[in-house]
Amino acid sequence: MSRAFFVCLCALFCAPVPLPAQEAAQEAAAAARVAGPVYMIEGKGAGNIGVIAHPGGAIVIDAGMAASAAGVRATLDALPGGGRIRFLVNTHWHSDHTDGNRALGQGAAIVAHDRVRPLLARPQSLMGQTTAALPDEALPSVTFSERLTLYAGDLPVRLVHYAGAHTNGDTVVYIDRYKAVHMGDLFFNGLFPFLDIDNGGDIESWVRHLDDIVSKLPADARVIPGHGPLASVADLVAFRNMLAESAEIVRQRIQKGATLDQVKNAGLPLHLEPWTHGFMNTAQWLELVYRSLAKN
Ligand SMILES: [Zn+2]
């Protein structure tokens, strides 16, 4: 996915809270405390990175771009145990979440859903851009099919796979004790999302998964989105409602015989316009929704 897109996202939406020890780290990325030992490092042109700090070694969720890895390392060094990454989780295969695997994954177990490793092991084409295969040492060394629990000391960190959402290999990471969750790209906070239809993305099952997730989250949970600022459950519900409304509007147009161009030209209601942004405008979003529904 386009680097410029995420640089743009970050400039627009990141609202960091500096760590006390961070001032000395010249290239450190900004981090926000989420809850207890859970932190979010803003995407800096890539997906948001989650951290569960622990003196025995950190669990890091997503790796961002390789170019940002030195800054991420500097930020991690300021956290308890952050100097050693024990587990590096990839929420899905997209390069803005995995390009930093080689730089951050040294000495760590890289963990992802079963479908992620084969995609990373070969060159991929996405939106007209080619992503190179990752070298062996940057590929996930632990994969799972449905659920996996990692431990930071005695703190369980639950990985749950949701099939057919943003991609077909998405993982959501729950830190239940601290009422925190990293949604990966199942949640773009305040933004029309990308939908990887060629790799199993599906807007209808995405909405169903979000309904299931929201029904089980505490109302005051802290939600790390794949992109955009740290969020609440209400923000996640607003995103879910935008997805569902977009799908319903496009479904009705298709049932009336509208072509893709007609669906795009009809636009969306004004109240959904704030979800548009530089890379994913309303017409591009409508095309993804149309393609997802037409596929079914
Ligand atoms: Zn993605």
Your description of this structure?
The longest helix has 23 residues, at 233-255. α6 runs antiparallel to α7 and α8 (260-266) packs across α9 (282-295). It contains nine helices and 15 strands. The protein has a single domain (3-295), classed as Ribonuclease Z/Hydroxyacylglutathione hydrolase-like (Metallo-beta-lactamase, Chain A, 4-Layer Sandwich), CATH 3.60.15. A seven-stranded mixed beta sheet has the order 1-2-3-4-5-6-9, covered by helices on one side. β2 (38-41) and β3 form a beta hairpin. With 296 residues, it is of the alpha/beta class. The chain is 31% helix and 22% strand. The structure holds zinc ion. Residues 92, 94, 166, 185, 194 line the site of zinc ion.
Pick out its properties.
296 residues; alpha/beta; Metallo-beta-lactamase, Chain A; seven-stranded mixed beta sheet; six-stranded mixed beta sheet; 9 helices; disordered N terminus; binds zinc ion
Gross morphology is globular
Q: What ligand species are in this complex?
A: zinc ion
CATH C-level name: Alpha Beta
Low-pLDDT sequence parts: 1-26
Q: Give the rounded overall mean pLDDT.
A: 90
Backbone structural class: alpha/beta
SSE string, helices as H and strands as E = HEEEEHEHHEHEEEEEEEHEEHHH
The proportion of residues in beta strands is 15-25%
Please report the total strand number as a whole number: 15
Could you give the topology of this structure?
Blueprint: H1 3-13, E1 31-35, E2 38-41, E3 49-52, E4 58-61, H2 69-77, E5 85-89, H3 95-98, H4 101-104, E6 109-113, H5 116-120, E7 124-126, E8 129-131, E9 142-144, E10 147-152, E11 155-162, E12 170-175, E13 180-182, H6 203-216, E14 222-224, E15 231-232, H7 233-255, H8 260-266, H9 282-295
Parallel strand pairs: 4-5, 5-6, 6-9, 13-14
Antiparallel strand pairs: 1-2, 2-3, 3-4, 7-8, 10-11, 11-12, 12-13, 14-15
Helix pairs in contact: 6-7, 7-9, 8-9
Zinc ion binds at residues 92, 94, 166, 185, 194.
